[in-house]
Design goal:
disordered N terminus; alpha/beta; binds S-adenosylmethionine; globular
């Protein structure tokens, strides 16, 4: 594993005392999408991220944001940057006095996000790994994971979910939007799977299993509301964080 550089200026960025290492799966599987500077230049196009989601970017973004609220109050955490206007749209919904924190493990992604946001945006950026968020228990009223889990190996995915649930207050919401196995009649079920297997090998886990598989043991099923989109190729979970037992 190599060390990330911590060259971030201007917008305040919280960094852990020691720089996070780049997770192996990011370096090995996703260097072409997130790590390489040319990747960021290439993918940071709204039309392209929309194309990658088969024209569903706006719909999925709005579904995630609506699950947080038409106006979003309190403290909100976005776990991992997203190409396109996801964070700006979320920031637009913030009520006065509310806050939005965004974490990512790559300085290049945080820098890219900072460049996209207006200077007035009430957004703080934090260099953290999703499996080791440097926030106290129950810091946030809600958190959102938009297309992160499919990129992570199963053990990392489980740790990300555990951390997200830890930092959201009991009664708060964790909103997850990600891939899902489409219906048998969906042409993309057959055409898209080989592409996913080649480019995003961990994503197929989300076709084969429910996300609940990676929630902590005994997580109450009645705290989860699931909805599918686009013939089942995408899913949204709205998870209400239970009180500690
Ligand atoms: C949210 S996902 C993909 C979202 C979507 N496909 C898009 O258009 O950007 C991509 C981001 O996740 C970040 N990421 C991946 N693994 C991470 C981890 N363990 N901790 C924090 N951020 C992570 C990457 O650095 C990248 O910025």
């Amino acid at each position: 594993m190599s060390r990330v550089s911590s060259k971030i200026s201007a917008i305040p960025v919280t960094e852990p005392a020691q720089s996070n290492a780049i997770p192996r799966y990011l370096e090995q599987t996703y260097w072409w999408a997130y790590v390489h500077p040319r990747a960021v230049q290439f993918f940071e196009r709204q039309w392209l991220v929309n194309l990658i989601l088969w024209g569903n970017f706006n719909r999925l973004r709005e579904a995630a944001l609506d699950a947080l609220g038409r106006k979003v109050g309190g403290n909100t955490l976005q776990i991992a940057c997203v190409y396109g206007n996801f964070t700006a749209s979320l920031a637009d919904r913030l009520e006065t006095e509310s806050s939005l924190d965004v974490v990512d493990v790559l300085p290049i992604q945080l820098n890219n996000l900072r460049a996209k946001l207006p200077a007035s945006a009430r957004v703080s950026l934090h260099l953290y790994d999703s499996t080791a968020l440097g926030f106290s228990d129950g810091t946030y009223d809600q958190a959102v994971l938009f297309f992160l889990l499919h990129e992570q190996p199963a053990d990392v995915r489980a740790r990300t979910l555990k951390e997200a649930l830890r930092v959201v207050k009991p009664g708060g919401r964790l909103v997850v939007v990600d891939y899902h196995r489409p219906g048998w009649w969906h042409p993309l079920r057959y055409l898209f799977e080989p592409v996913l297997r080649a480019l995003e090998p961990y994503a197929v886990d989300l076709w084969n299993h429910e996300i609940t598989r990676w929630l902590p043991d005994g997580f109450p099923a009645d705290h989860i509301v699931k909805k599918n989109f686009y013939g089942g190729l995408y899913q949204q979970l709205v998870i209400t964080v239970p009180a500690p037992s």
